[in-house]
């Protein structure tokens, strides 16, 4: 269905394999991204969950910060969990240098440490309809502030957990741990295909 598109998944650290599997299940081209040059060959980018301080350090070690910032400023990008942290404007941890793509402030581990991880169903506004999503919160970031122009597509316990602005989509939670393809399909349809 999406065989004319190639979506990259930042593969420096974290749970990038499941995102690649989801993209392949949808029929899209899927590519592991580990260098700045590889960004030039993709139609959209997913920054996966993982450990945000490690991810931030590896982005610098692989000399990708400038290229990532340029790409994510104009091209379709989706950040999940640690990916949301990396795309945020402000993070409550000095060792994380976010890319400042979407004007939100986040608190790392805002929903608790690993032992407090949980799975739930959230209602998200996707393409004008409300869709239930299987959401896994694992050391998930909590959005504590966002700019007025940011679209809130889903909340959990009165806090935004799925937001978008222009070319950027961010989610506090993981959906790739299950076989629910609603959110990657939404990202491709609403952001990648629309940009093309």
3D architecture notes:
This protein has one domain (6-195): Class I glutamine amidotransferase (GATase) domain (Rossmann fold, 3-Layer(aba) Sandwich), CATH 3.40.50. A 7-stranded mixed beta sheet has the order 2-1-3-4-12-11-10, sandwiched between helices. The protein has a 3-stranded mixed beta sheet with strand order 5-6-9. 26% of the residues lie in helices and 35% in strands. The protein is of the alpha/beta class and 196 residues long. It is globular. β11 (159-165) and β12 (168-171) form a beta hairpin. The two termini are 15 Å apart.
Q: What is the topology?
A:
Layout: E1 6-10, H1 16-25, E2 29-33, E3 44-47, H2 52-61, H3 65-74, E4 77-80, H4 82-87, E5 88-91, E6 102-107, E7 118-126, E8 129-137, E9 142-146, E10 151-156, E11 159-165, E12 168-171, H5 182-195
Parallel strand pairs: 1-2, 1-3, 3-4, 4-12, 5-6
Antiparallel strand pairs: 6-9, 7-8, 10-11, 11-12
Broad CATH class: Alpha Beta
Q: How many beta-strand elements?
A: 12
Unreliable stretches covering 5 or more consecutive residues: none
The global form is: globular
Largest sheet: 7 strands, mixed
Strand-residue proportion: 25-35%
Order of strands, main sheet, comes to 2-1-3-4-12-11-10
CATH architectural grouping: 3-Layer(aba) Sandwich
Radius of gyration using CA atoms only: 15 Å
The CATH homologous superfamily is called Class I glutamine amidotransferase (GATase) domain
CATH topology tier name: Rossmann fold
Ends distance:
15 Å
Averaging pLDDT over every residue, what do you get?
95
Number of H- or I-type helical stretches: 5
Order of helices and strands: EHEEHHEHEEEEEEEEH
What is the helical fraction, as a range of percent?
25-40%
Query: How many domain modules?
Result: 1
Class by alpha and beta content: alpha/beta
């Amino acid at each position: 269905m999406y065989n004319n598109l190639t979506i990259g998944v930042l593969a420096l650290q974290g749970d990038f394999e499941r995102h690649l599997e989801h993209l392949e299940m949808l029929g899209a081209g899927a590519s592991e991204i580990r260098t700045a040059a590889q960004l030039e060959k993709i139609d959209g980018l997913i920054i996966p969950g993982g450990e945000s301080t490690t991810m931030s350090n590896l982005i610098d070690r692989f000399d990708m910060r400038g290229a990532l910032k340029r790409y994510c400023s104009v091209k379709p990008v989706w950040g999940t969990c640690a990916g949301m942290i990396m795309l945020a404007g402000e993070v409550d941890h000095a060792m994380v240098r976010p890319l400042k793509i979407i004007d939100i402030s986040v608190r790392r581990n805002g929903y608790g440490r690993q032992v407090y991880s949980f799975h739930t169903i959230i209602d998200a506004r996707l393409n004008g309809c409300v869709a239930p999503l299987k959401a896994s919160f694992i050391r998930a970031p909590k959005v504590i502030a966002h700019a007025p122009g940011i679209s809130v597509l889903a909340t959990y316990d009165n806090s935004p957990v799925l937001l978008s602005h222009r070319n950027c989509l961010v989610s506090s939670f993981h959906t790739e741990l299950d076989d629910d393809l609603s959110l990657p399909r939404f990202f491709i349809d609403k952001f990648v295909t629309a940009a093309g």
